[in-house]
TrEMBL record, chain A:
This is Maltose/maltodextrin-binding protein. CDD domains: PBP2_TMBP_like. Residues 1-22 form the signal peptide. InterPro entries: Bact_solute-bd_prot1, SBP. PROSITE patterns: PROKAR_LIPOPROTEIN. SUPFAM superfamilies: Periplasmic binding protein-like II. PANTHER family: ARABINOSE-BINDING PROTEIN-RELATED (PTHR43649), DIACETYLCHITOBIOSE BINDING PROTEIN DASA (PTHR43649:SF12). Keywords: Signal.
TrEMBL record, chain B:
GO terms for cellular component: plasma membrane. The gene is ycjO_7. Gene3D superfamilies: MetI-like. This is Inner membrane ABC transporter permease protein YcjO. GO terms for biological process: transmembrane transport. It comes from the Bacteria. It comes from Streptomyces hundungensis.
Length: 438, 330
């Protein structure tokens, strides 16, 4: 009898506990606090060759921070494929890290969730002020007219990487400056049995980056000034068609590239199978793939005519990583200290040199390390001819909808189906209809 | 007319306390009757938490305008009435048209996959019925796809389906010369066949396992008697094996149908978050609507519609198969 009574009490207690759990959760509320001043959790995006490589790079820096402030940082390197979903889950539950890395193109979308701490003047003052950062990098930190939702951490830009030996074999003496020259050079390389240009047709983000730049060069934008999708303008259609035509019409991109999404085009380049590739901050990747620095060259990404610059001469998106503080942090002051540490001149030089990226901090950018072969072009591009992706709340949906449309068009080109202005417009029309109604 | 027989041995009732006739025994009885329910309570609550609560939340979300603007405090998202449902079933609109396309792809895919899984599984189980040298080893080999972790198995298939270096093109094009040029399997129209191949490869061992278990229950005497009466192998399968397996198949087909219709892992690992149109299964489509384009309300409405469809199909299937069995019993 005593056993039965104990079992009954146990059952009732467990039930009550479960009922209490069921009643909890749901919506995340509240702001930050300083309840846990001695610890921080940091979600770092996977920047290096692997998660473990990133842990090895970051751990000594975090230890340095702990020694300086007494705050222990719990590090988790999150792969790109998981990062956005992880952030969304944390946003919904209210249980997330204190500080995290975000793709800078997500800034406005994540800002709209209200989960990120706004970087107003007071918060910027804690890390040395807004003026320390490069203007173009600040352009990718949130919607126009609002306090930034994040702080720039690593900057990147697109450039044209070319294989010196492939160029020599094809009799090309200098890298192309315009798209026409690039196509002509690509055909010369094709004639030697190599592929002219590498592409990643199934990589939605990469598709977006390329067609965004081409749209700028055609004088078009994918969003109107009041943030509404505008995917089917003549300029946008021409941009998408020009990009897919590199495979469909010009035939300087191999058909197999239509299914590439895991940096296979970089692997082809490093193995000497492809003559050129348009990529952001690729030097570290080439090295990890066994390619020597002397084997490749880098130049500014092409424009329609003339030289790269602002407006229609834009030749890159402002790529990069931002650092955001989760609004529900339990160590508000510690988080600010950590952002200050990671964006300090010293750490910026060190981390950006390691990752092959460019510091978004002006003072750090002056370091000679960023005037080397792999970085000088990127720095100049960021300074003068790169533009931020649309900083609108629907940016994430735009990447999926238009990125998929380009992917489908590449699939058509690979299958030998015609890619026409009408077929491009139809795909973009469908993509626009899939965007959330306002 | 009713008669009430007096109890054979009436229980003595103290005259001074009629109301408390069974008073001293009540607490014990309540305890005895209540205890099983009390012990069941944790399981019931757990079931409530794991299934019912999320379902209710999902249904609630489907009536809300739930986008990135409200995800942090989804409880405060404004009600949108039936807007999400109307958007999902407006087949002239881009969202509804894409959902219908995805639904039709899923129906054709499921019918083909389940049929092939069942056919291969049953054929293999029947072939393994009689003992022969190496039967144990073959059975084990057959079950390997079922035992492998889904992710590892599907990612291996993704490598094999690659255009340039994949084994599939190497065999079909380079060795057997069955195609004019290497085909694309992970993009374009062929992606449907790639998905179907992986699904069947992954699913038939389960059918094999279940049918094999069902075959154990068929008395050998039936086959011996049929053989004596001159029934050949096909007649034995038609007249003995398949009718005897009917109850097993009823459950097997239903489970395979539900698993295949809702399969998320296979297309996600094979194609990523954006599957080609030809292989855009509804599970991926709903995931994309909810977690990639951040239309959580519309995604929830699609999930509820899918749930209703599966409930109706499952109910109709159970009704039809049980009616068929009753008729057969008569």
């Amino acid at each position: 009898m005593r056993t039965m009574r104990a079992a009954a009490i146990g059952a009732a207690t467990l039930s009550l506990a479960l009922a209490a759990t069921a009643c909890g959760g749901g919506s995340a509320t509240g702001g930050g606090s300083n309840d846990a001043p001695k610890t921080l959790t940091y979600w770092a995006s996977n920047q290096g060759a692997s998660v473990s490589a990133d842990e090895k790079i970051l751990r000594p820096e975090l230890d340095k921070f702990e020694k300086k402030t007494g705050i222990k940082v719990k590090l988790e390197v999150v792969p790109w494929s998981d990062l956005l979903n992880r952030i969304l889950t944390a946003t919904t539950s209210g249980q997330g890290p204190d500080v995290m890395n975000i793709g800078n193109s997500w800034s406005a979308s994540l800002q709209a969730t209200g989960a990120l701490l706004p970087w107003d003047a007071a918060n910027f003052a804690k890390i040395g002020g807004k003026d320390r950062f490069v203007e173009s990098a600040l352009g990718s930190t949130g919607a126009l007219g609002k306090d930034p939702a994040a702080v720039p951490l690593y900057s990147m830009a697109y450039a044209l990487y070319y294989n010196k030996q492939a160029f020599a074999e094809a009799g090309i003496s200098k890298p192309p400056v315009t798209w026409d020259e690039l196509v002509a050079d690509g055909k010369k390389i094709e004639a030697t049995g190599k592929n002219g240009l590498g592409a990643e047709g199934s990589n939605l983000s990469n598709n977006i980056h390329q067609v965004f730049v081409l749209a700028k060069q055609h004088g078009a934008d994918f969003f109107t000034t009041d943030g509404k999708p505008s995917f089917t303008s003549d300029g946008a259609v021409a941009a998408v068609k020009q990009y897919v035509d590199l495979m469909a019409k010009d035939k300087i991109v191999n058909q197999s590239n239509a299914e590439y999404a895991q940096n296979q085009s970089l692997s082809d380049f490093a193995k000497g199978r492809t003559g050129m590739v348009l990529w952001q901050t690729a030097s570290a990747t080439f090295k990890s793939m066994g390619m020597k620095d002397s084997e490749w060259g880098v130049t500014a990404a092409p424009v329609q005519s003339g030289a790269p610059g602002s407006g229609a001469q834009t030749n890159s998106m402002v790529a990069g990583i931002n650092m955001a503080v989760f609004k529900n942090t339990h160590n508000l002051d510690g988080a600010a200290q950590f952002v200050k540490f990671m964006t300090s001149d010293e750490e910026q030089k060190l981390l950006n040199t390691t990752y092959g990226s460019i510091p978004p901090v002006k003072a750090a950018q002056l370091d000679p390390a960023f005037n080397a072969q792999g970085t000088a072009v990127l720095r100049q591009t960021l300074a003068g001819s790169a533009q931020a992706l649309p900083q609108v709340a629907d940016e994430s949906q735009f990447e999926t909808a238009v990125g998929t449309a380009v992917k489908d068009l590449f699939a058509d080109a690979a299958a030998g189906r015609a890619v026409t202005t009408e077929s491009v417009r139809a795909k973009l029309q469908k993509a626009q209809q899939q965007m959330p109604a306002k | 007319m009713t008669t009430t027989a007096p109890p054979a041995h009436p229980r003595p009732v103290p005259e001074h306390s009629p109301g408390a006739a069974r008073g001293p025994r009540r607490p014990g009885r309540i305890r005895r009757i209540g205890l099983p329910y009390l012990l069941l309570l944790p399981a019931l609550l757990l079931e409530l938490l794991v299934h019912l609560v999320p379902m209710v939340i999902g249904i609630t979300m489907s009536f809300k305008e739930l986008t990135q603007f409200y995800i942090r405090q989804w409880g405060t998202a404004p009600w949108s009435g039936t807007d999400n449902y109307r958007l999902a079933v407006d087949f002239h609109g881009a969202v509804g048209e894409a959902l219908l396309h995805s639904f039709l792809v899923t129906v054709v895919f499921t019918l083909l996959s389940v049929s092939l899984c069942w056919l291969i599984g049953t054929a293999a189980a029947i072939a393994m019925q009689d003992s022969f040298r190496g039967r144990g080893l073959l059975r084990t080999v057959f079950l390997v796809p079922y035992a492998l972790p889904v992710y590892a198995a599907v990612i291996t298939w993704a490598f094999m389906f690659q255009h340039d270096n994949g084994l599939v093109n190497h065999v079909l094009h380079d060795q057997l010369h069955l195609t004019d040029k290497p085909s694309f399997w992970l993009i374009g129209d062929n992606s449907f066949y790639a998905l179907l191949t992986v699904s069947v490869w992954k699913g038939w061992p389960f059918a094999f396992l279940i049918v094999m278990a069902g075959l154990q229950n068929i008395p050998r005497e039936l086959y011996e008697a049929a053989a004596l009466d001159g029934a050949g192998m096909w007649q034995q399968i038609r007249r003995i094996t398949l009718p005897s397996l009917r109850p097993v198949n009823q459950v097997l087909v239903l489970v395979l149908f539900l698993w295949t219709f809702n399969d998320f892992n296979t297309p996600y690992v094979l194609f990523g978050k954006s599957a080609p149109a030809a292989a855009d299964l509804i599970s991926i489509h709903i995931y994309q609507s909810s977690f990639v384009t951040w239309n959580f309300g519309t995604g929830s409405a699609m999930s509820v519609l899918l749930l209703l469809f599966l409930l109706v199909v499952t109910g109709a299937y159970l009704l039809l198969t049980s009616r068929g069995r009753r008729t057969a019993d008569v």
